Amino acid sequence: MATAGNKSINAKLVLLGDVGAGKSSLVLRFVKDQFVEFQESTIGAAFFSQTLAVNDATVKFEIWDTAGQERYHSLAPMYYRGAAAAVIVFDVTNQASFERAKKWVQELQAQGNPNMVMALAGNKSDLLDARKVTAEEAQTYAQENGLFFMETSAKTAANVKETFYEIAKRLPRVQPTENQSGMVLPDRAMDRAVSASCCA
Amino acid sequence: MRIAAAASKPLNHLVAFEHKRDAYGFPVRPQHVQRYREYSDIYKEEEEERSDRWSSFLEDHSELNESLANGSSGDSHAPSSESKQEKEEEANKGAGDNLRTEKLGSDVTLDNASEEEGSSDAEKNVHRVQLWTEIRPSLRSIEELMSIRVKRKGDLSKGEQEAPKVKSLLSFDDAKSSKGASENDSEDEFYDVERSDVQDGSSSDSTSVSGIPVSVDASSAVSTCPWKEELEVLIRGGVPMALRGELWQAFVGVRKRRSKDYYQNLLAADSFGNSIEQGDVQHVDDKGSNTDSLAAVEKWKGQIEKDLPRTFPGHPALDDDGRNALRRLLTAYARHNPSVGYCQAMNFFAALLLLLMPEENAFWALTGIIDDYFNGYYSEEMIESQVDQLVLEELVRERFPKLVHHLDYLGVQVAWVTGPWFLSIFMNMLPWESVLRVWDVLLFEGTRVMLFRTALALMELYGPALVTTKDAGDAVTLLQSLAGSTFDSSQLVLTACMGYQNVHEIRLQELRSKHRPAVIAALEERSRGLQAFRDSKGIASKLYSFKQDPKSVLVDSSKASLTNGSLSRSESGSSNADEVLVSLTGDGEVDSVQDLQAQVLWLKAELCKLLEDKRSALLRAEELEIALMEMVKQDNRRQLSAKVEQLEQEMAEVQRLLSDKQEQEGAMLQVLMRVEQEQKVTEDARRFAEQDAAAQRYAAQVLQEKYEEAVAALAEMEKRAVMAESMLEATLQYQSGQLKAQPSPRSGNQDSPAKSINDQSPDPPQSRISLLARPFGLGWRDKNKSTTPEKLPENVSEEKKPAAEGKETDAEQKDAKVQDTS
């Protein structure tokens, strides 16, 4: 859940998409600015965190990079439940991965957090010759379903940071009170504990 | 096997990359390079130590081994003992020689690999030779022990119909086998065992396998084995790298699982297209129809292909040959068990196995691990994996309530992190040495217990650090990075095995059966929810189209129901009859009923969602309550501390007062002391004064006495004076009488004195009287005076003295006068 407090926001973000669409590569590019030709297959899920400064706040992304294989689908709810944002990744050179992305969008609309910020990332945009899914097709689909669409390339780093930046900007600034108190309370408790120990 | 060969080839390459890759050729994360270097020496020492221990263990049991070898295959005694010696020599070489050992082990393969480049027809034969190798005979007894487990499981899963099939296969193989003498021996040996197994399985009674008395209960047989405990301790201490591949095979019971040519035939199905061979492919038939499995395999093919380069990318042993072997292995497994097919994670397992053993051995090991150890884990729904996570969560909750409380508070689910741990069996989650050590125990135990124990041990090791984290991201990052730096593999394994002995298979089974329904229900709920969502969308679109063109839908449904109705007349099905009635009365209602059903489903899903929301709200409430309690506690503490402060201030004041008082007291004491001193002084003075007074009194007394004496003397003198006066008067009277009567003859003589007296005579009486009177009067007065009280004795005495003296002088004068006169 994204939480606002003193202009710093913690946002849980989940990456979903077909096998080999480039989820892990996108994260690796975003978090470490690295790229490897053969990224090890993700088993279950992997976690990363990265902080991003937008004009009015700093957003700390807690990124869950999930496994792409269809059967790992059953574990996905554990990771997208309570997420403030989702990046649904497909491979522009693979029509099937686009279909799979649509399924993910559908599932998130049905099961996910209704305020979730969703981004559709058409990855591997550097492979111009092998393109199977056109930007227009994806753009139309994104508009119809209330997502924003970006063509990315983890290899060339094109639009990777931009995608996360856009998500950070779109994250709701005013959070449900329930969550706000959730983060503020422990902070206060900590402060008090400190001050109390100082007094004592 | 070819990977093993490949591993020995790029030795220089390995050295060059030493700073980035560990002894197994796996990459070391840059942040851990330093720690890995620190531990690599320890690993080397440990490896040498355990090689020694293992070789002595194997020597101790060599007699048993030989008897077993004799029992299982009559005439293979000589070669087996020979090869044993050779192998033990290898084992003694220790960790540093891992690669060399692999090379030795794969000598045959290298030769065969070159042969392989011959015709495709020959290739098939070569495959058969090179892909399968027996494990060294010294480990045979361990294999026998562990295989008991396999057989029993095999019996349970495959059932009895399998037995005759295998038997027929055996006869087929026996007839076909025409290899070298030694290999013949080993295969005979193998099938002897297999045959006895089959007998064992079909009779399902207590018989003896290869001379070891075996009871029906395999586990009891395992536990009754005299050196089983010793073996367990050895395995927990780690398996020497040189023996690892073979011991793993022994643990999984590869030889027992193997049925000859099965692997080749699985692969042959590929090369011969759709033409399905007779024989072992029947196994595939058991799992599903051939066409299905082939279609599935085609589906897996793409995924396997994608994952091949993504399996330990850059590992020196995984070159083209290695990846081809990996492809064959994964494809064969997908065909062997289409219900699992290919699941990501298996690529890593298969690659690890290929690094340690020949291809076919790896296939059977993989089969054992996925089919038995992790049955239901990697299947389509991954139910067992989810169940295990719930079980683990319960165990963690039970063991580390403080940690779980903190994680709940941060909103972190243990399963987020442990799920991938279990699914990958810690591969890429822990340093490799630790992964292999966990695998040693896991494969030996034959259950997933070690997964739980290891996860709990990691929680124990890193829980205290996790409790200090302040948000979910930090907690997960910390746990991941700490787990990734668990280089002390011995500590990990021992903590896991010793600390969590009450986490055992029976308990886990109970917990699993407790949690399984929840997982299945959730799964159904979710799929239903999705279905309902789609249905609700369907309703919306239907309603929309109904608005646009009501007739089209009505016509459609009426058409359908009419056709159904026409069919139902012949079938006389009740539901169809209903539909007919409906269609007769009102065409649209069928649709609405379906809509209602969909809506009910949808509402159910909504309800589930609401329930979930409620549950999370409750959790939230609890969390808030806890937070509130904490705040109250903090508050109380603050108040208390304020009070304490106040009290302390008061205390300080009181203390100040006390010190003031003490000072005053001191001053008073000083004053008192001074006063006392003064008192003493005055007392002294008084005493002196008293003494003085006493002395003076005494002096006064003495003086008084003297005075009295003097007075007495004076009185006497007065008396004398009086007497003398009276005498003088008398004389005077006599003289005057004589003078008056006759002037005496001596008048002349007496004239001169008389004259002198006469000279004085006009007034002598008066003067004499006055003379007499004066001292008398004075004495009289003095007498009166002395009667007055003595105030100052000194003065008195001083006054008296001259007076007394005066008197005395007077008295003396008088005396003298009296004498003169007389």
From TrEMBL, chain A:
It comes from the Eukaryota. Signal peptide: none annotated. CDD domains: Rab5_related. One of its GO terms (cellular component) is endosome membrane. It is a lipid-anchor. Its main location: membrane. Pfam families: Ras. Keywords: GTP-binding, Lipoprotein, Membrane, Nucleotide-binding, Prenylation, Protein transport, Transport. The keyword Cell inner membrane does not apply. It is found in: Endosome membrane; Prevacuolar compartment membrane. GO terms for biological process: protein transport; vacuolar transport. GO terms for molecular function: GTP binding; GTPase activity. InterPro entries: P-loop_NTPase, Small_GTP-bd, Small_GTPase. SUPFAM superfamilies: P-loop containing nucleoside triphosphate hydrolases (SSF52540). Belongs to the small GTPase superfamily. Rab family. This is Uncharacterized protein. It comes from Microthlaspi erraticum.
UniProtKB/TrEMBL annotation, chain B:
The keyword Coiled coil applies. Transmembrane segments: none annotated. InterPro entries: Rab-GAP-TBC_dom, Rab-GAP_TBC_sf, Rab_GAP_TBC_domain. Residues 65-79, 736-761 have a biased composition (Polar residues). Residues 630-667, 700-727 form a coiled coil. It comes from Microthlaspi erraticum. Residues 199-212 have a biased composition (Low complexity). This is Rab-GAP TBC domain-containing protein. Residues 44-125, 173-212, 736-822 are annotated as: Disordered. Residues 238-446 form the Rab-GAP TBC domain.
